[in-house]
Amino acid sequence: MYQVIQFKTPSILFGMDTLSQIGPEAKKLGAGRALLVTGPRVKAAGLAEKAVSSLKAESIAVEVAVEERDTPEPATTVVEEVAEIARKGQFDVIIGLGGGSILDVAKMASALLTNPGKTRDYFGKEKVPKRGKPTIIVPTTSGTGAEVTKHAIFLDRESNVKKAVASTNLLPDVAIVDPMLTVSCPPRVTASAGIDAFLHAAEPFLSKNANPITDAMALEAVSITSRWLGPAVADGQDLDARYYMSLGSVMSGIVLNNSGTSLVHAMAYPVGGEYHTPHGVTLSALVIACFRYIMVAKQRKMVRLAQAMGENVEELSPREASNRALDAIRHLIQSVGLPVSLRELNIQDTSKIPRWAVEAHKEQRLLSRSPRILSVEDIQKIYEDAF
Ligand SMILES: [Fe+2]
């Protein structure tokens, strides 16, 4: 079969101290006035100031909007507020500097400057008709991949479910990935974001949407993140670990953008929406049960995952090697102190499973990529297994 492949990525500037290049990058986009959206912790760490001085050196007027409600899942109202600030100030470039939530807010606010209506009008696949104002997206954690993806995730307060805007028009213009910005990221956030990064490579690798370009990148990203996450969590000042986790994260973000996540992410949405658990932590609690269920369809790829994670599988049968991959993932998650089951996540109440299964099953945008076809009952079983 001859596969059709489309590959999309923003312009990427990766490396130590690349934040200092934000001024010249904004200039290339034609910026006269830039709005920099950031969070309180990032501002307190002095990172916004560094960006501002680089922008000012290029004679770009800049205003900093600090989004105080820096929660794991921003409400859509925050986007509308930021868009209003941007509209009033007539900014021509929108910069997001922060964790995944801030970056999603910046991306979506930019889209609302050229498209009518509100965020909730654009939930779903390819619903944003026009590109927004140019964006520069700068992550301060290694994991979400938001700097290179077309996605923005928000909490829909009406249904209390996390929902995604997935539109090519949301793809940032420029991603600046500076590992130095992640040095102050606390261990628990490093761990959660790091598992997210690992899964943005591993999950698309097993999906129906995988292709040879993303597979090559996914295996390298799996190898890098599984090797360096432990050291990055153990010592945030370990610059080698921060450098490679940033690299692995941007690579897995590209994989995510071009091949997409599937079952684990679909099942995490209702749980995260209900318990407000950090995204990577929720994924950790579900991934073993999910992969155990789908791996029958992707045994050879599970073997390659095990190899990429440094497991010696030469003497093993494909079935044994697949199980070895599962063991390696479990070990990786446990080694950074995250839960491998919903019970370990302190969720005791199993009565919500039927509703979660229905909610997760609605995520056909993600589930259509699953290598194993899933009914509501199948998903229910996987949730039960995840307890
Ligand atoms: Fe994710």
Report mean pLDDT, rounded to a whole number.
94
Question: Element order, helices and strands?
Answer: EHEHHEHEHEEEEEHHHHHHHHHH
**What is bound: which ligands?**
fe (ii) ion
Provide the β-strand percentage band: 5-15%
- How is the largest sheet built, in terms of strand order? 1-9-6-4-2-3
Distance from first to last alpha carbon: 40 Å
What does this structure look like?
The protein is an alpha/beta fold and 387 residues long. It has helices at residues 22-28, 40-44, 47-56, 76-88, 100-112, 187-206, 212-234, 239-259, 263-275, 279-294, 299-308, 318-335, 353-361, 364-367, 376-386, and strands at residues 11-14, 33-38, 61-66, 93-98, 124-125, 135-139, 151-156, 161-166, 174-177. The strands form 2 sheets. It has a 6-stranded parallel sheet, sandwiched between helices. The chain has a 3-stranded mixed sheet with strand order 5-8-7. A hairpin with a 4-residue loop joins strand 7 (151-156) and strand 8. The radius of gyration is 20 Å and the shape is globular. Fe (ii) ion (FE2) binds at residues 196, 200, 265, 279.
List keywords for this structure.
globular; 15 helices; alpha/beta; 387 residues; binds fe (ii) ion
Summarize the structure.
With 387 residues, the chain is an alpha/beta fold. It has helices spanning 22-28, 40-44, 47-56, 76-88, 100-112, 187-206, 212-234, 239-259, 263-275, 279-294, 299-308, 318-335, 353-361, 364-367, 376-386, and strands spanning 11-14, 33-38, 61-66, 93-98, 124-125, 135-139, 151-156, 161-166, 174-177.
